Amino acid sequence: MARESLIPATEKRETKMPAIANILTLEQEKNPWExxxxxxxxxxxxxxxDNGIWKVLRMPxxxxxxxxxxAMDDGSIEVFTGYRVxxxxxxxxxxxxxxxxxxxxxxxxxxLASWMTWKCAVVNIPFGGAKGGIICDPKHMSQGELxxxxxxxxxxxxxxxxxEKDVPAPDMNTNEQTMAWIMDTYxxxxxxxxxxxxxxxxxxxxxxxxxxxxxxxxxxxxxxxxLKHLGMDIAGTRVIIQGFGNVGSNAAHLLYKxxxxxxxxxxxxxxxxxxDGIDIPALIExxxxxxxxxxxxxxxxxxxAELLTRECEILIPAAxxxxxxxxxxxxxxxxxxxxxxxxPTTIVADDILEDKRVFVIPDILANAGGVxxxxxxxVQDRMGYFWTEAEVNQRLDAIMTESFTDxxxxxxxxxxxxxxAAYMLAIDRVAYTTKQRGMYx
Length: 441
Ligand SMILES: NC(=O)C1=CN([C@@H]2O[C@H](COP(=O)(O)OP(=O)(O)OC[C@H]3O[C@@H](n4cnc5c(N)ncnc54)[C@H](O)[C@@H]3O)[C@@H](O)[C@H]2O)C=CC1
Ligand SMILES: O=C(O)CCC(=O)C(=O)O
Prior knowledge:
Elements: H1 26-29, H2 32-47, H3 51-58, E1 62-71, E2 77-88, E3 94-101, H4 106-122, E4 129-135, H5 143-156, E5 166-170, H6 176-190, H7 211-230, E6 238-242, H8 246-258, E7 261-267, E8 270-273, H9 280-290, E9 300-302, E10 314-317, E11 336-338, H10 347-356, E12 359-361, H11 363-366, H12 369-383, H13 389-414, H14 418-437
Parallel strand pairs: 3-4, 3-5, 6-7, 6-10, 10-11, 11-12
Antiparallel strand pairs: 1-2, 2-4, 7-8, 8-9
Helix pairs in contact: 2-4, 2-14, 4-14, 5-6, 7-8, 7-12, 7-13, 12-13, 13-14
The structure holds 1,4-dihydronicotinamide adenine dinucleotide and 2-oxoglutaric acid.
Family: Belongs to the Glu/Leu/Phe/Val dehydrogenases family.
GO molecular function, one term: glutamate dehydrogenase (NAD+) activity
InterPro entries: Aminoacid_DH-like_N_sf, Glu/Leu/Phe/Val/Trp_DH, Glu/Leu/Phe/Val/Trp_DH_C, Glu/Leu/Phe/Val/Trp_DH_dimer, Glu/Leu/Phe/Val_DH_AS, Glu_DH, NAD(P)-bd_dom_sf, NAD_bind_Glu_DH
């Protein structure tokens, strides 16, 4: 089973960061905006990108900061800071999720917005890139507080969003309910129901069948493709997943159903391991009842950080940024790293993984199933005609398979790693449109 390397030794790679590891502090290494910019610069240099277009695409188009007053349940008033950043609107309306978390920052939202631009271009859907976030601690807020905060945030950014301008969706700690509140608030202001202003809504109010599972489904498709590419079998392929939220749990469930062996799950409050494979449907049921993965009887408790370095064929970080860094990348014992989260790997870790010959499926490809199904939702809302789940899944599988082939072929023909190939492919597409539109005249 053990293989020395998945990348043939003869394959020469030319995509290492120029000795960057020696000059960054850990804090700098973990700045997502710098991480995005370093990959962008490297890919742009390889493309010989025109200097002017380079400057246009390096910076976000628009950054909005809002301060949102909210009446709390105890009668006090709290003011939350929120962001919406539109990185590029060259290829279509801005598109991207909204996250609620205590550590949201402008640099993070900027990075996430630009990753959306590159992601939508990698899968070739007609959107630009945007992202939003609110600094808050949703675990300690009631449903009422979350609803009031969401509605005021929507009102504060209302001039900047819309079906033809910028279309939000769920991200960390936001969900179908959050999208329903945004859609309703926007519709109240417009005086009519506007379903296409957000995606990831409940199905009965214009959501798409299959959107909830779509990011996990896309991950399962690129994992299948990676195994095929590398001559490996699903049988005996061990998978460890960090994060058991929307992305992680759906990826786990779909991979489980396909016959992969999910040996480890890491969550923020603990981890689980079972060398014979975790019964994922039973774990989903347990988590729904207990509110945590801890205490699940059919697996042993494991250290959540150590789980990332256990031997497996596929490691899927599906929680948050900066979990694979200079501090642990050398210890990873996976053959394939499939990035379900956005920005889970730092630029220093990129180089370490390159040296270890880990086959990386980069975030802007691996987790693009979500936004692809969001595109389908937006199309269905605008048509007022809704597809079956089978139709959504079949179209999603086709786009993810084609995009995987595009990126891996590009990497081979340009002698770069998969991440830089994905960036180059995306930047080329966005640069072409930016130039064609003359978005600087
Ligand atoms: N929801 C979507 O459709 C998409 C999400 N993503 C990305 O996937 C990642 C996860 O997003 P969702 O699943 O939507 O969020 P979520 O909020 O549904 O789930 C995140 C899960 O990760 C866990 N978690 C947080 N920090 C952790 C840590 N340090 N260690 C272990 N577990 C941790 C949380 O407890 C939670 O269960 C984010 O990076 C997000 O940007 C990317 C593409 C689409
Ligand atoms: O579904 C969408 O529009 C965006 C999802 C998202 O935020 C992401 O892909 O990171």
